[in-house]
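input
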Amino acid sequence: MKSAIRIVMALGLVFGLSACGGGMVSRNGSAPGAVTVASKNPVVMVPKYDVQGIRVSVPRDLAVSEANMFYPIADIVWRGDPLGDRYNQVQAILEEGFARGTAAMNNGPKVMLDVELTRFHSLTEKTRYTVGGVHSVHFILSVRDAATGAVIEKPRKIWADVKGSGGTRAIGEEAMGRTMKVVIVEHLAEVIRQELSLPMPESTTPTSRNGALATGTVGALY
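output
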């Protein structure tokens, strides 16, 4: 009787592991039924607006820290530029990222973007060259009619956090030119594309005046 029970339990364990294995998805894989760019119904991100300009503000009452510790308590922590005016430095990063992300947005209503930074907490030297962490960038985005200034999209808070490498990996990335600034600019460009685009099946995607698809990219937010 005990032998029979052991056999039944063993078979149940084998079948259970098989079921788990069949449902697992690797980090580079897709879950069953998920829509991907290679599927029969691909989805692209189509810009909603023709972005005429971007106004980025970094309030001077945001607290800045130069402390070389794992996690300074401050609104702005930035070490990717030489010591200087951190407000101007992070403003330039936001302007570059948003300009890159909206460069191809030339379809739809003409708009201006208003962006107010509320947090730019990157990695200190101590964190960068040990454990790594998260580049935490938060801002408020609003969309206005370029001609009248009327609000088209009310202000909303956006978190644009992205992982920051640490230790030997960070050193290796920097040696190849992939600095903290490059990572943040790329991520901001992707975030603003996602925020100002709509998903649409490729078969119904409108084209721009020169016949090219007016699309952004398909990607995940952090």
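quick obs: Confidence is low (pLDDT under 50) at residues 1-39, 207-222.
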